[in-house]
Amino acid sequence: MKKNFVLFVILLVILVISTEIIPKTFGSHKEHHLLDRIRHHQLPADHLMFNHPDSNLYHQVNCDSLNNNCFFTERSSVLTASTSCSNCHDQPLELLKKQSNSSIKRSHWDVTLFHADKSIMTCTTCHSEQNMDQLSTLTGEALLFDNSFKLCAQCHSTQYTDWKGGAHGKELLGWQSPRVAKTCVSCHNPHNPGFPKRFPARLNTQTLQN
Amino acid sequence: MIFDLLKGNISIEDIAFSNKKTISSKGSCKCGGDSSKCQSNNEKDSDEYDQVFNKKLSRRSAFSAMTKSLAVGAGLTQSACNPFSSSEKSEMQWEEFFKKNYRLMSDNEKDQTVHRLTSLYEKRTGNHVNISTDDPNENVLYGYAFNISQCKGYMDCVNACVKENNQDRSSQMQYIRIHEIENGQINFEGAEDNFYHEVPAEGHFYMGTQCYHCENPPCVDVCPVGATWQEKDGIVVIDYDWCIGCRYCMAACPYDGRRFNWKSPDVPESEVNLVQHYLGNRLRKKGVMEKCTFCIQRSRKGKNPACVEACPTGARIFGNLLDPNSTIRWVLDNKKVFRLKEDLGTEPKFWYFMD
Questions:
Q1: Nearest-CA distance from B235 to chain A in Å?
Q2: Which architecture does CATH list for B142-353?
Q3: Per-residue DSSP letters for B189-229?
Q4: Do B323 and A162 touch (CB under 8 A)?
């Protein structure tokens, strides 16, 4: 009985040595998985290597999920380059249409809404009735055209999260910080956000040519 | 023998050895008999060729020096007929032929080979090419993510890749393959690789493949001449001047990531991308391997690869895996990602994900 116990203790000691002590002292602590290596890497504080002078051109927004600076393309300067919206839109749309000079087709007269259906979206879901120079949220809060992505985020919250993080949308400058990306409306027309089908830019392989 | 020499079949030691043999056979030395006597006899005989062959020179430099004089002579005769091509040019060509593997080159030697390559190209075409030898950036490990719900099969990435990397225009050898796969499966055998219809096709998704720059690249292990290796920033590169074209790497790659130049690449002079990297998009020749380098000439300067820049849908994401704030890390941490053939343990640095 005592002999068995001694044997058991010896075996236990051998087991501990072989599994714990030997690999830790003699074997190099090698991370086997790429992801471990990536996550354990300590990045020095001054790791920013490239500076984009161009990033100053873009509108800076606060991305709460990221520590680094994010820049997105501006919208209001594009829209109000020639004149502000309220120059024409000084009264409700119905009244504008009834006016005598309404036969003259001005800017964006052909806007038709292909975005959800009428029970969900109308013009005023996004545009502010009181101030045409601004947008308004579902709760009636005023919003600048530059921050239109906050309007989209009201419904498309998954896409918004992906875009904020970097899994959705188009990067503009490069892979390094600061990140510069397009906003929703730079790609999607807010009145018709889908994309039509088109032919690919080239044949895929030579098999077809043969 | 000189033909064998030119083909690189035998080395300078072989010549020395064969000379030694002929000389020593004159002395009727029988190896296996009195070996010490045999040795001394050999040494005595060797005096005649010692100055030429037993000089403390590396094999390549000795060979290079030997043939250079030959080349200069040939160049001079040529220049007598044609005043434009100079002996300098043929000397350069010979030095190019006998240069080292890129990894063994000192900074000075790198500059020299770049100088030779640029002046030879300028002599030939009149265009000035800018070949960079940028080293990997510190604290950078490149990674790539591909969104299979965003890719619509537009093929803009392939066009951009061919143009950026000076790929052969006639053989349609492309680094990127876009596979049109029916919804509900990931089966490359059933994938349509040569679609040409309006995209995206109903009930299909698109998946792009290219070199994945594996963390444990099998292609690097099999290369018999060390012409391909992994750089510190994770990019698997090829020294085009060291590759012997055996295509072992092509066979070893489980992902069909490598391409072979069956013929001299045909790139119209006006379309050549003159911003190049030694290990990247510089012009290749017949019989060497090439593949995606994550556009090393762009990425090491902070830019995105050409395919990422060209993708109109934003399906391609590129970044620094070691930077916890990078977009690629956000994708890895927040999306459900997968890689192809994970069970092989190659650890590709190329992840797929869905919206």
A1: 14
A2: 2-Layer Sandwich (3.30)
A3: GG-BSS--SSBSPTTEEEEEE-----SS-HHHHH-TT--EE
A4: no
Task: Please tell me whether the overall predicted TM-score, pTM, comes out greater than 0.80 for this model.
Answer: no
Residue A147: the pLDDT is 83
ipTM: 0.78
pLDDT band at B74 (very low <50, low <70, confident <90, very high): low
Which of A31, A204, A205, A206 is most worth mutating to test chain B (most B CB atoms within 10 A of its CB)? A204
Minimum CA–CA partner of B177 in chain A: A204
Phi, then psi, of B309 in degrees rounded to 5:
-65, -35
Asked whether the predicted pLDDT for residue A14 surpasses 60, the reply is: yes
Three-class DSSP category at B30:
coil
Least CB–CB distance from B317: residue in A52, A167, A199: A167
Distance (Å, whole) CA B83 – CA B230: 44
Chain B residues with CB under 8 Å of A44 CB are 139
Looking at beta carbons, which residues of chain B come within 8 Å of A197? Answer: 198-200
Nearest CB to B198: which of A171, A199, A209?
A: A199
Q: Where are the domains of chain B?
A: 2-53, 66-128, 142-353
**Interval B264-296: pLDDT, tens:** 999 999 999 999 999 999 999 999 999 999 999
Strand partners, B179: B207
Which residues in B223-306 belong to E strands, given as ranges?
A: 228-230, 236-238, 258-260, 275-277, 289-291
